[in-house]
Write a structure and sequence with these properties.
It is built from 9 helices and 3 strands. It is mainly alpha-helical.
């Protein structure tokens, strides 16, 4: 097992080998549904060690996402301001057309991207934000963190934003991977659209030119 090898030959290259073996195991199982020989290195004979390895590698991956695409730097999320404003412009147009008894020009809009596109937008919306930033020194206290890349951005990860016509006005609901999420600061899953716009008023109308001038 990896544990035997590491205990006998402790070195930095061994850590790299553990991570490589872990991802080879994960990818072959996920994509090809194979019980890869790589997975046997994380043997059940020492399940506790295997769980620890998974938690450490998972956290290292999240740290990478956190500082490249997430809350680690403000510019990460602000890079999505054009996409963010496009989303709210479309919602505003739909609400206005519906209120005016006009045909809604865009009933559904589907946009396809990758984690590099979706995660900054989710971050700009303030979703899955921990009270304490993720760092290399607080692994133990972040085991139950909100910012967990495997949960937020799995294969075919998605963000759905829907507008509902209700008796008290238009209400908005966000879903991440088909599960409703609360708009930060609004303690309900389907808050009034006007309240959502107030919540995000500080970034509505942001420009790409301003973002490009940001240092970090």
């Amino acid at each position: 097992s990896f544990k035997t090898h590491i205990n006998t030959h402790w070195c930095l290259s061994c850590i790299d080998s553990v991570e490589t073996g872990f991802y080879l195991c994960a990818y072959e199982f996920t994509i090809r549904r194979l019980n890869s020989p790589w997975c046997r290195l994380f043997d059940r004979a020492d399940a506790q060690f295997s769980v620890y390895v998974y938690q450490v590698i998972d956290y290292a991956s999240d740290l990478d996402l956190y500082y490249k695409r997430g809350y680690g730097h403000k510019i990460n999320s602000m890079a999505s301001c054009v996409l963010f404003n496009d989303l709210f412009d479309r919602l505003e147009t739909a609400a206005t057309e519906f209120s005016s008894d006009l045909p809604v020009s865009e009933v559904v809009t589907v946009e396809i991207g990758h984690v590099e596109t979706l995660l900054p937008l989710v971050t700009l919306l303030g979703l899955f934000r921990d009270k304490t930033p993720l760092t290399a020194t607080n692994f133990a206290s972040q085991l139950h963190r909100a910012f967990n890349g495997g949960h937020i951005m799995p294969y075919i990860g998605n963000l759905l934003v829907a507008l509902y016509d209700c008796p008290d006005g238009f209400r908005l609901q966000m879903r991440v991977n088909e599960k409703p999420v609360q708009v930060p600061g609004l303690n309900e899953f389907s808050p009034l659209f006007e309240d959502v716009k107030k919540r995000y008023r500080h970034i509505l109308g942001c420009s790409q030119e301003t973002v490009c001038k940001m240092s970090q």
